Amino acid sequence: MSKGMAVLSLLAIVACSALAGPADAELIVKQNGHFSELVEQLSGKEYVLGSPARDDRPYVDPTPVLHAFRHMAASLAWGDVKVAARKAAELGYEVIEFTDVDTQHEYYVLRENLKAVKTLRGWGSYIVNPQSKVDAIVEVPHPYADMHTPEVGGQIFEECEARGLLLAGAHRDKADVPDLVDSIFHQVHAAWIGPLAQVTAWQIHGFAGQKHKFPAGTQVVASTGDGAIVPEIAALDSAFDEQGMSSYVFTELDADNDDNKQVNGDTPGIAFRSLAAAKNEQGRLSRSLGGAFVHIELEGTVRTNKESRHQASTAIALAMAAAPRGEEADGRRQLASLEVEASPISLAVNHELATPAVEVGAKIVNKAPPAAAPPVVVAAATVEVKPEVRVAAKHAAAVAKPRTAAISAP
């Protein structure tokens, strides 16, 4: 071997050693604490960029690393924690093995490594429950703009023992992740729902009642994004009714359609089009793969009241546990989808992204017909609501409240 070749070989060995970094085990940090406090921290200003008016830290465009991040998130979900930790370190993230001191449950947390990056990039934090047997993830896309949704999402995730919890990392005025395919949030969604969207995403939002022409007292509006009343939606509506909460569902079915009456009473489902989530990119992806997506809007007074937040969280957790799984769910969704006529709401979108080259730097920008939900047991509580009782309650509410067909602009 020539002297020149020997030098090149030595340089290659040194370079590879530098890339390998510390041992995989050293990259996984262990922490103990209260899970609720962890969620509070990850949804606070330390890990979330505020609005442009209140926070001058810019959101960093993650396009160069989207493909790499998606694969890293998939590794974590598959249980290959050491590989995920190594890949995370290369992307300025860290993997935390977190143990809740109250329940002794263990979680894996994926968050920005504030010691490794110059400034917070606004890419979000993500939590995996490795012991979960529930085919569901919980998503919180607007931790600042939709106040208290992180608390709701955290409680749902913990109570139902869902597979994952996604917390966005920037105010919606800097990065509105439901509209962005080229976001880390969307890539984690894609990685965690599975290749055929076997895992249902339940996305939590908030709305102000005074801004919408809904029936008086509306507390919850749910949607799949395309107007279908899938089993998950039926289970959710049943659970909210059991909690005594006024909930409705967006659908384009006629007001006198039996399925509409089951979830909306005499109120036409089209009245809730302003919260249809038709353009939600996570919902589009899940549906395009044959899976389900549940978009839940909670009214402001529900979110600001601790007792109401708890009621809403419990209802959603019950619905997640009650939703059918596997072949049963697939068959019922197909039947439900037949009820949805072709319309501008249902859009065919190609969600495949070209694989970008991974770069060190990143651009900075300022910027089936529904049936009664089966009995479910969560924390020894059983819920069973007969369809005729549910419809009667909706009908009574519709009679007592002003019926409106007015539709707010989407």
TrEMBL record:
Signal peptide positions on this chain: 1-20
Keyword terms of this UniProt record: Signal
Protein name in the entry: Uncharacterized protein
Native organism taxonomy: Bacteria, Pseudomonadati, Planctomycetota, Planctomycetia, Pirellulales
